[in-house]
Design a protein that fits this description.
about 575 residues, alpha/beta, Rossmann fold, 3 domains, 7-stranded parallel sheet, 24 helices
Length: about 575
Amino acid sequence: SSFSDRLFRFRVNWRVSILPLALQLQALYRVQKMASDAPVAATLAMEPPLERSTFSSLGVEPFLCKALQAMAIRKPTGVQAACIPPILKDCIGSAQTGSGKTIAFALPILQALARDPHGFFGIVLTPTRELAFQISEQFRVLGAAVNLHSAVIVGGMDMMIQALELKKRPHVLIATPGRLVDLIKSNQGEWSLGKVKFLVLDEADRLLTPTFAPELGFIIDQLPASRQTLLFTATLTEPVLALQNKPQTPGKPKVFTHVSREVVTTPAGLTQKYVFIPSQVREVYLAYLLQHLCDLTGAQPLHAAAPKPDTKSSTKRTTKRAASEEAPPVLPQTILFVPRCGTAALLHSLFSQLPNPIPCTSLHSHLSQAERLRSLQTFRKQAVPLLIATDVGSRGLDIPEVAVVVNWEVPRVPEDYIHRVGRTARAGRKGTAITFVTEGDVDLVKALEDRIGTQLEELELPEEPVLEQLNAVTMAKRMAHMELHSEGFGERQRKNKEKGEAAQGGGSKAQGKSASKGSAKTHRKGSSNQSAQAAGKGGAVVAGGKKAKKSAAPRGGGGAAAA
């Protein structure tokens, strides 16, 4: 059938059967139930009264208040006012993206460090490298008055340099779990984490999953039982909530939990739209959308002129277009989220191949760590208006001036949508989220709207002007494919995957010979391997100090390993 027929059926289904009044009421009921569910409400602390409106009234030392004023931060947000005082005990804090969760745990750590400074005072674990560098920058600014020495330990960087940095015993480590475990194992005896006072799990809902369970269990085994454990997240999952109900550790107060009064969902100042498109010409619609984004959203443009193209072959492309007198598109600061690294690289190249190129940079895991940091810094400094990112950019990154978020496709998990669109409309600002929807996405849209408790608005793009640039975009896409092929994009990842599969095949032959030795070794290692196995089976593991206990598996098969 024709696109017009499919579009007509989609719109009829949308307005008549997909989201009738009954479903809207059901969505509203579920949102209200999440906010008032009795078992949760009975145990979760809500936001404090408004009279606690200054950092000094929360007990924050004057030198830290001065640092906050230098950052133009004058009043605490809800999560900061609720969590800073009780962080002398274990704490779980949940609030919307952009609400200042990092400062909520950084201030108490720095205040305690000023009283008793020593190496390896605190560890902050994050699921992504980019978030680790962002947190490090906030610690650096706030901790200048106490001569804070911090270190970022993430993958993609030179391990030898990182090992030398750890020998200097920094006060605060900001790390991704995998690289920290590698350094602990390769430098045993040279330094110890036995005096750590604070362990922070930022984006705890991502860390408390089977993916991170082995590393997290190993790290926890290296820490003293007397440490304070802080968990912060924008989305409360069942593994996170389960931690507050764990048995109280002898000699320590019960875990304090703060949840924002508002159900954690999309920001209040966010306008949410969808564009219905035929999947075969997705790139054509995307190019038109970006070229007219200011007119379609009302957002202010970032620049009136384009900077130098951000690609290796920029000189060659500039020469090709020397005769073009058309000005480049003027965009607001925008993040385009795509599902795969290959898509990000393809679109990055495609946009630069257009007759009227779109200035952009990209952020994905196939880039080296230096390239990822350079790309993010380019976007932060507003040298380019568009960042094409996979979900490595959806967690915790704080770029206040982002005006628009575009989703290349409907996220499969509603929580991923919440984190993505949370990159805009931060801290009370306005923002717009636009999601591309195709014929097969109806069920995903229903689930998404049910979760966020609101209906997406339709943004109609004029079909004829869009398709006028079909030939230009198709040619640019072909050129982009050729460029990626000539540069060997993804070749290193494919070779590493093949090596891993070959090693795994060889290892399986030797596995039987060493089974008895391996089982004895596993038994001696204790709780960290138990944590990994239980989490891998979907169980939630709650570790108190150096021993772990199994608890009932949460719904959805998620695992947890935490203190």
